[in-house]
Amino acid sequence: MRVTVFGTGYVGLVTGACLADVGHRVMCMDIDEGKIARLKAGEIPIHEPGLDTIVERNVKSGYLEFTTSHRDAVAHAELQIVAVGTPPDETGAADLQHVQAVAEAIGAHMTAPKIVVVKSTVPVGTCDKVAGRLAAVLGGRGSDIGFEVVSNPEFLKEGAAVGDFQRPDRIIVGTNSAHARAVMAELYEPFNRNHDRMVYMAPRSSELTKYAANAMLATRISFINEIANLAERLGADIEQVRRGIGSDPRIGYQFIYPGVGYGGSCFPKDVKALARTAREAGYGASLIEAVEAVNSRQKMKLFEKIAAHFGGEAALQGKTIAIWGLAFKPNTDDMREAPSRVLMEALWAAGAAVRAFDPVAGAETLRLYGERPGFELVQDKYSALDGADALAICTEWQQFRAPDFGEMALRLANRVIFDGRNLYSPERLRDDGWTYFSIGRAT
Ligand code: UGA
């Protein structure tokens, strides 16, 4: 089958590469010429495990092509997948200009019927808007050349996107057209051989499914963080409570890890966008708004603990805090909405300096904060501790789970750790002479 994918970000590139890998002939289009030139040369612009080999293999075999030409992209296939970005605009709403620009390009260049598949995360009603825009661009030609607009949201996790695409829990297809449904079934047939994962519904239900899934997961995180904050005040241990509730299969163990709040390009943006959509629909979504409020507060948690330990914000002037982990979660270099940023910015505002280490997000952090006084990036986790007054852990990279505490004690004279991911046993650290703060557990 032939497929065109617009947008070569996380979603577009993973989608294009994985579809080519099962034998579809895929053309990926992006307006960023530099990016397309790098992709053609085999350079992957993002850190996503496994993606580079799949791209390389399929570029070599000719199943995966890249272009900056709208004309070629539209001519390539009946199926036109839209995976361009929908960043929040200045009001917090999803900015649809890139999606609409693709719709216009498709309308301008199409000479045969098309199925336009909206994979970008878009507010409910966007498929209808895209259909409206296409019809307007096509004008009189519209009656001769038909089109369908289908919603097909993605559920990929950064760092595990390739596996998530190849082994999906479900494939949501929002369409009322029997033809589009048949074409989508054929597209995803290689992923449905052992078990049919297709779930068909109306486009608006499909669009809302995406937001509901992310809002539900974000709710679990804010819920456990709220219980953790309560546990601290009541003398309970959130890790024991987590195990206690997770054993109920209706609750389950996933997504109830307390921490420094959720980050990334999806949860924060989607939760805010859903709250906004609700307001626009005349409904105050109190639960969803609270999920966001709890998360913003949680991102300040480590800073508050650090300030309290040293005797108030003013006492942080001139202190140096080592930070382990900058990315919003392990196995990615993504710094978007990362809790580490809130911590670092609060530390700088209080006059403290930061010596930070992250296994892969260093370069991205330098791009963001390289010029900033009070910021130093180091190349290994132990050097971050040299001369620091305390260590703060923001991301649970594997290599932080069992560090050499002897080596750490030599470098970090104060022996103070603020652990935002509950990586260590408080008893063990206390017995070894550390002052150890974590989330939702007694100090
Ligand atoms: C998320 C969803 O998990 C995907 O299903 C979805 O497709 C994607 O958003 C999207 O909309 O594109 P992602 O943003 O890659 O994926 O990250 P997650 O692995 O879900 O983690 C999100 C944040 O929640 C991280 O900051 C993580 O540290 C935090 N988290 C997660 C917790 O604090 N506690 C948990 O128990 C789980």
UniProtKB/TrEMBL annotation:
Catalytic activity, EC: 1.1.1.22
SMART domains, alphabetized: UDPG_MGDP_dh_C
Domain UDP-glucose/GDP-mannose dehydrogenase C-terminal stretches: 322-426
Known pathway: Nucleotide-sugar biosynthesis; UDP-alpha-D-glucuronate biosynthesis; UDP-alpha-D-glucuronate from UDP-alpha-D-glucose: step 1/1
SUPFAM superfamilies: 6-phosphogluconate dehydrogenase C-terminal domain-like, NAD(P)-binding Rossmann-fold domains, UDP-glucose/GDP-mannose dehydrogenase C-terminal domain
Reaction(s) catalysed (UniProt annotation): UDP-alpha-D-glucose + 2 NAD(+) + H2O = UDP-alpha-D-glucuronate + 2 NADH + 3 H(+)
MF annotations from Gene Ontology: UDP-glucose 6-dehydrogenase activity
Top class in the EC scheme: oxidoreductase
PROSITE patterns referenced in this protein's UniProt entry, alphabetically: PROKAR_LIPOPROTEIN
Domain of life according to the entry: Bacteria
Keyword terms, alphabetized: NAD, Oxidoreductase
Family of this protein: Belongs to the UDP-glucose/GDP-mannose dehydrogenase family.
Matching NCBIfam families: NDP-sugDHase
Protein name from the UniProt record: UDP-glucose 6-dehydrogenase
Species for this entry: Aquamicrobium terrae
